[in-house]
Amino acid sequence: MEQQKRYGHFDDQHREYVITDPQTPWPWINYLGNEDFFSLISNTAGGYSFYKDAKFRRITRYRYNNVPMDNGGRYFYIKDGDTVWNPGWKPCKTPLDFYECRHGMSYTRITGRKNGVEASVLFFVPLKKWCEVQKLTLTNNSSETKHLKLFSFEEWCLWNAATDMENFQRNFSTGEVEIEGSTIYHKTEYRERRNHYAFYHVNTAIQGFDTDRETFVGLYNEFADPQAVMEGKPRNSHAHGWSPIASHYIEVTLAPGESKDFVFLLGYIENEQDKKFESLQVINKDKAHALIAELDTTEKVDKAFAELCEYWDALLNIYKVRTGNDKLDRMVNIWNQYQCMVTFNFSRSASFFESGVGRGMGFRDSNQDLVGFVHQIPPRARQRIIDIASTQFPDGGCYHQYQPLTKRGNNDIGGGFNDDPCWLIFGTVAYIKETGDFSILDEMVPFDNQPGSEVTLFEHLKISMDHVIKNLGPHMLPLIGRADWNDCLNLNCFSWDPNESFQTTENVSEGTKAESLMIAGLFVVTGKDYVALCKKIANGQWSMVNGQCDFADEAARMQKAVDEMIEAVKKHGWDGEWYLRAYDFYGRKIGSNECEEAKIFIESQGWCTMAEIGAEDGMVAKSLDSCKKYLECEHGMVLNNPAFTKYIYEYGEISSYPEGYKENAGIFCHNNPWVIIGECIAGRGNDAWSHYAKILPSYVEEKYQTLHKVEPYVNCQMVAGKDAFRPGEGKNSWLTGTAAWMWYTVSEFILGIKPDYDGIRIDPCLPETATDYTVSRKFRDAEYEITIHPNGAQKGVKSITLDGQPIQGTVIPYSAGKHVVEVTM
Ligand code: GLC
Ligand code: GLC
């Protein structure tokens, strides 16, 4: 293979990815913030911040799909004589003597050097605080005294990120700021219904400022050469309408060898309705002053940063593997878990591919994300389950998305995605297995957020299962509704109007025969989980307080439904070499050898093999072999094969994509793990591993930094498939269910450490080349040090000792305290 250019490398000791060339093939970003205040930051300091909701509380402005790419962000301009430069290279793009961006766990450090001056900026959001800290350290490494002119820069967004980009007839007249000392306050719309404002502060006296964009930049200049900066003269402008910004001007003198810190703070404040103002039009700044006081020195900032690092230490200490394979260890121990946290926080809302205005939290997405995250902060997973379930309807259907700020279902998209309800079981079961906390089943949870409509969470699970059973088609397979997991398989949509959205357009569902084998498999997998859960309750593991039900009967009732589904799949869902994908509106096969294109799809292979449907008849093995034969390529497994080459009215959006992209034969990384888990359940460790390694970022980073394009430290949603123009190109990085599924796959199915109701089940499935490895796993109040000796086996645990004593079976019974486990395969 040709030698590829490298843009960076992993630094495992610091848990960082180190970017050494600012001109990466695409902006390589990181996320700051863990709970309420969030920022996106690229390797050149681009990106933006928001409070809780990237649509309704956007704090700084960002322009997507810009030219050049990734313009706008938090910029520091350093004017040293006639040279103006930025530590992150952009936007001036003055060639630097040194550049480095270190993306770490919820922080980013960007360092630039020019003409003997070093500027290093540490960006992070302190725990539990509503602000982004930017600690800038300027150091004079030259032998002369330096007189530098420093300008900061942030551009305010007028809160609602959607209207900010469209309603200019109003926007240009509403912008308002206040300036007090070294703090610039952004208070647009605060005079009326908003009770929140933002501020940008620096912990030193300033010699000037700007708050009006055009005055600072100049109408015919750009971020690369703002007039005020180029002339070294702030304008002290006050924004009234137009486009408010915040820029501090600071004159800095540094003796040779001298270094100075500046703490910049981008903060967000909410005031009580009756305490909004200090006097007419003057905002109440008490809370801002208090927040500033918490972070106004280097010492305080360093302490807050140390706390953030400890927080991540603790999170990443819960599951740790030592295999001796650095590429695997760094993904399992650091980046995969980190990405899971990010997807859990952001769902699919805000990335460099998701604008933050389109989608909120997905019902199915968030349930899946939970599995990647539940071991880290179970209480947040618990809350998320309740929030999600609260958007369900009494018939078990649910809103497809909800807004994080309001927690309300999103009316723009509505419901009708028939896989959605099953995911609630998937998420809830994962939570209970991790925590042993059955009490969540007793939580009273409303429908559609309507007070007074509350029933137990268990009841929500029950109606979720029933929603599938009550919506079966002519082959007794689940009706697909608007779509199943594949949002683009729109079998009831029939759209010829390019102005309507495939996702939301009115469906023709009367008389539909469109059924999904993906939902069938999902129903069997989650149905088995549901049955097991009911049995646990029936056996006295938990007695419900709020809702009663004969749990043994319920288990039997659902077992019957699961068995019937299995029969239906065997009878109507098998194509000879693989599982069918679906039946269309008219009852015609999709994903069959009889079809002209898209003869085989990945989703039903994944779910039906995970469900082990027809394993005894060789169906599982055949299906997995067919995935290798028809779907696999150098970069992973494609979604369908052959790709659609034309638009099919009866199938919808899936056939709208050119060949090899997205849902039309792209490598939709999210669903590769389903097949990998299918392989693991079938005991085929070599195959599981080879599929897994193909989409493991650390393997990709080594092979194709330029081809892949997007961040080499996280998974992306989609890699262009074998039919694409440039197979192997990645897109839609960060916010993808791939993160949680990769985690679930490697932690539970490959390395084989599975939380279960009564303890930890040990069931690895490995390539035969695997050598001994150790997993440290905190589980409830216990801590296990588990060493596995594979002895060349792909699957099958022969014996286990717990603290030196042999145990029966493969479940290590839970008991608090520290334990040592040895596993021989
Ligand atoms: C996107 C959506 C997810 C969907 C998938 C397949 O990742 O977020 O909900 O399942 O695409 O269409
Ligand atoms: C598009 C995408 C799909 C995504 C959906 C969400 O259809 O292709 O991946 O789930 O939009 O709205």
Rg (CA only): 28 Å
| Sequence of strands across the biggest β-sheet | 1-2-9-10-11-12-19-16-15-14
Bound molecule types: alpha-D-glucopyranose
Describe the biggest sheet? 10 strands, antiparallel
- Indicate the structural class: alpha+beta
Mean pLDDT, all residues = 96
What distance lies between the first and last C-alpha atoms, to the nearest angstrom?
Answer: 37 Å
Beta-strand content: 15-25%
The global form is globular
What share of residues is helical? 25-40%
**Tally of contiguous helical segments:** 20
Unreliably modeled segments: none
For the secondary structure, the number of strands is: 44
Question: Which characteristics define this entry?
Answer:
825 residues, alpha+beta, ten-stranded antiparallel sheet, six-stranded antiparallel sheet, globular, binds alpha-D-glucopyranose
Describe this structure in words.
The chain is α+β, with helices and mostly antiparallel strands and 825 residues long. The chain is 28% helix and 25% strand. 56% of the residues are buried. Bound molecules: alpha-D-glucopyranose (2 copies). The site of one alpha-D-glucopyranose has 6 residues, from loops.
Note the topology.
Layout lengths: L7 E4 L4 E4 L9 E4 L4 E6 L6 E3 L6 E3 L14 E6 L2 E3 L12 E7 L2 E8 L2 E8 L6 E10 L5 E14 L1 H4 L3 H4 L5 E4 L2 E4 L9 E7 L5 E5 H5 L9 H5 L12 E11 L4 E12 L6 E3 L2 E2 L2 H9 L3 H19 L2 E4 L3 H21 L14 E2 H9 L6 H12 L11 E2 L17 H16 L8 E2 L9 E2 H13 L45 E2 H22 L12 H22 L9 E2 L5 E2 L9 E2 H9 L8 H13 E2 L2 E2 L2 E2 L25 E2 L3 H10 L3 H10 L2 H7 L1 H4 L7 E4 L10 E4 L4 H13 L2 E4 L2 E4 L10 E7 L2 E8 L9 E4 L2 E3 L3 E3 L3 E8 L1
Parallel strand pairs: 40-44
Antiparallel strand pairs: 1-2, 2-9, 3-4, 4-5, 6-13, 7-8, 7-13, 9-10, 10-11, 11-12, 12-19, 13-18, 14-15, 15-16, 16-19, 17-18, 20-21, 22-39, 23-24, 25-26, 27-28, 28-29, 30-33, 31-32, 34-35, 35-36, 37-38, 38-43, 39-40, 41-42, 41-44
Helix pairs in contact: 7-20, 8-9, 8-10, 8-20, 9-10, 10-11, 10-12, 11-12, 12-13, 12-14, 14-15, 14-16, 16-17, 16-20
The chain binds alpha-D-glucopyranose (2 copies).
The site of one alpha-D-glucopyranose has 6 residues, from loops.
